[in-house]
Structures are given as structure tokens and as C-alpha cells.
Amino acid sequence: MTEEQAGGAGRALHPDTRAVRGGRGASHPALAPVVWASSTFVSASVDEAQAAATSIGNDRFYSRYGNPTVTDFEQAVADLEGAEAARAFGSGMGAVTAVILGLCSQGDHVVAARHLYAGTQLVLQAVCPRFGIDVTFVDGTDPGAFAAAVRPGKTMLVWAETPANPRLDLVDLDAVGAIAGPMTVVDSTFATPLGQRPLDHGVDIVVHSATKAMAGHNDATLGVVAASAELITWLTGFAVLQGATASPYDAANGLRGLRTLPVRFARQSATALELARWLEEDGRVTEVRHPGLESHPQHELARRQMRELGGLVCFDLPGGIDAGRRFVEAVELAQLASSLGGPETLVTHPASTTHVNLLPEELAAVGIGPGTIRVSVGLEHPEDLRADLDRALGAATGS
Ligand SMILES: *Cc1c(COP(=O)(O)O)cnc(C)c1O
């Protein structure tokens, strides 16, 4: 920890302050992030070029290896996650595939939660077997399920996502962190570093799609992994060859997003809980889900391991597919789009869009019903959002 991060006199700074102050080394003395657009850098001598080419993650050699703007974003994320180091990627999926394919080899075994981001789930289910990597899917809400599926000497990775898409099921971070042997990974995208810190629970690796709330303005496609310096060095060696490199423009937008993440995330979490409470009372929908609702089956766990509970709300419309379609077309303030964590409130109806090719029983297995709606609550005034959802519920349910 530098003197700056420690806030002087050894006093640890609050996460909100660290989000504002972190990742400024390469931009100093500019206050806003400087975009180092250069794809390559001039060396003063052969010895210097050779040292750069053979060091890991050098950010003054060639931008696929490292880039100063990207380094600043990585350092800001490492600081927020309480990690020794971080590596940014060109997308969340770039980060996900680097961790899985960079750490697993033919003959290795992975234990993963069943409730995962669809892209991650497809990599584990369809790509891993092609490389001889065996995957066992377990119920992530059962704290003992991961450990029970570990094959000693064979399991290389344990993969969890919490809160998980779309029903906001949680994974017990202490239970995952306590697993000995394999490396443990948590996709913490829905929580952001402000909502929870998996590494504090003994988890080895935290993964984010920074495309979502971290960059936070729907103008960057960006991923990041935070872990020990040793693991990040290894992953960087793979990432340089994988080529899912973070753009300096996106990294600058990532840094810009981190500066305001604490206030954005707190506001979205508060509005989401307010809307969830109203929906639960309303009676036109069933099974409202938000980790802050007392009715969430893991509400106590959420209170224990999360600092902020997030801006996503999920609920079911009793009228099935048709009601779901009517709802997402009837909203006027909220918009139909697949992402989350930005300023604009977005709605998705998985059964008619992202998951349209699944059979009813396959939908049920991933927690999606025909009338399931996911709302990513933005920064609009809560009363305006409530009025919009109220009107759309009327159109969808005829009441
Ligand atoms: C969006 C998302 C990803 C993938 O990130 P991209 O930036 O879209 O590649 C991975 N995990 C979760 C939980 C996500 O929401």
C-alpha cells in the first residue's frame, strides 16, 4: 500500500475514497485518465528492448503486452479488490476464457455452479470438453456442493458466480474460499468491488465484466481479473498470446467509471430494493427477487457477505411468454437491452430473447420461467421508474 492509498499515518481509506484516488500513476499530473493510444513504444537500446520483450506485463513495449492507461485501470481494480495485482482484458469473456484456458490443461477437472452467465456456461459446457477438460456442474446455492464435487489431484478450478443471473442466487463466499486444493474463482460482476470482496473470504481469483457497472456508462467493453501477483503473472503470459487485450480507450472509460462507482452503485442498490419491495406488495407479479428482500432465500447470507446488494431485480409475470413480451414492449422509460449496471434502466425477457432456443425444462434448470423479467435499475428517479413499471404491468397483465 502506498502512502497515498493508506491516506497517510497508516490509516486505511474507505473503498469510496480509494475508487476516486486509485490508478493514477501513468496519467500524473493530468487529473483525468490519459489515453496512451500508442500500440508500440520506442526503446533506447537493444538491452532495453530485450529486457522489455522478456519481462511479463511491461507497459512500455507493445500494447498487447501492456499499456500505461490499462495499467492504471488494473491497479485501481487491484486496490479495490484487495488484490496484489490485476490484468485487464478486451471483454468479460476475454477474462473468463483466460482464467479457464490459461490455467486448465487436458485431463484437468472443473467444478462450476449451474447458474452462470450464458457465455461462461457455454465455454465450460462446449469448449472445455474439446480440450479434454472435464466439467461438473453443481447447485451453487448449496454451500457444500462445490467441495463435494472436487476430485483431489484432478480438480484445477472451482468456478462460482454471485449474485448469479438472472434470479440473483448467491454463493457462500466463505465456503468457496475454504476449499483446499483447486484454485477458486468468483465472477463478481453483479456485485462490483463495492458490493463484495471475494478475496477477503479466501477466494483465489475474482473476475469481472467491467463492461457492466464498473465502467458503468455502456461505452466500454472491458474485463478484469484480480488475484495474487504470481497468478496474474501467469495469466498475463497466457493473455499476451490469447490477445483479448483491453483497449486504452476502454480502460480510460473504466477508470472514469470507477471514480463514481460507489455513488452509482449505492443509488442503484437503494432504488432496486425500493422497487422490489413495491413489486412484492403489488400482487400482479410472483417471486420478486432482490438480495435485500427478507423473502430472498439467502437474505441472511447477502447481509453477511455483501456491503451493497446491487441494482438488479427479477420477477415473474403469471401470464407466461405473452405477458413477458407485452411487458418489455410496454415500458417507456426502461428500455429493452441486454446489459446491466449503466445509468439507464434496462429490462430483459430471457424466454423470448437471450434464451429463446431453450426448451421449457431447460429454461427451468437455469431458473428462467416463461414470464421471468430482469430489470437492471439505473439512475432515474425511483418514482418515475415505479410509474413506468406500473403502467407496463397494467399493459402486460390487463389489470
Ligand atoms: C456480461 C457478463 C460477462 C461477460 O462480459 P462481456 O464484457 O460481455 O464479455 C461475464 N459474466 C457476467 C456475470 C456478466 O454479466
Q: Residue share in helices?
A: 25-40%
Portion of residues in beta strands equals 5-15%
Structural class by SSE content: alpha/beta
Oligomer state equals: single chain
Question: Which overall shape is indicated by the principal axes computed on the Cα atoms?
Answer: globular
The succession of helices and strands, N to C, reads HHHHEHEHEHEHEHEEHHEHEHEEHEH
Mean pLDDT across the residues is 95
- Report the C-alpha radius of gyration, rounded: 21 Å
Number of domains: 2
Strand order of the largest sheet: 1-7-6-5-4-2-3
CA distance, first residue to last residue: 57 Å
Largest sheet: 7 strands, mixed
Secondary structure: elements and pairs:
Blueprint: H1 3-6, H2 15-21, H3 46-54, H4 68-81, E1 85-89, H5 92-103, E2 109-113, H6 118-127, E3 134-138, H7 145-149, E4 155-161, H8 173-177, E5 183-187, H9 192-195, E6 205-209, E7 223-227, H10 229-242, H11 248-282, E8 286-289, H12 299-305, E9 312-316, H13 320-330, E10 335-336, E11 346-348, H14 360-365, E12 372-376, H15 382-397
Parallel strand pairs: 2-3, 2-4, 4-5, 5-6, 10-11
Antiparallel strand pairs: 1-7, 6-7, 8-9, 9-12, 11-12
The site of pyridoxal-5'-phosphate has 17 residues, from helix 5 and helix 6.
Keywords, separated by commas or semicolons:
399 residues; alpha/beta; Aspartate Aminotransferase, domain 2; 2 domains; five-stranded mixed beta sheet; binds pyridoxal-5'-phosphate
Describe it.
This protein has 399 residues and is an alpha/beta fold. It has two domains: 5-256, Type I PLP-dependent aspartate aminotransferase-like (Major domain) (Aspartate Aminotransferase, domain 2); 261-397, Aspartate Aminotransferase, domain 1 (Alpha-Beta Complex). It has 15 helices and twelve strands. A seven-stranded mixed sheet has the order 1-7-6-5-4-2-3, with helices on both faces. Strands 8-9-12-11-10 form a five-stranded mixed sheet. Helix 2 runs antiparallel to helix 11, helix 5 (92-103) packs parallel to helix 6 (118-127) and helix 13 (320-330) crosses helix 15. The radius of gyration is 21 Å and the shape is globular. The N and C termini lie far apart (57 Å). Residues 91-93, 96, 117, 119-120, 161, 165, 187, 189-190, 209, 211-212, 221, 223 line the site of pyridoxal-5'-phosphate.
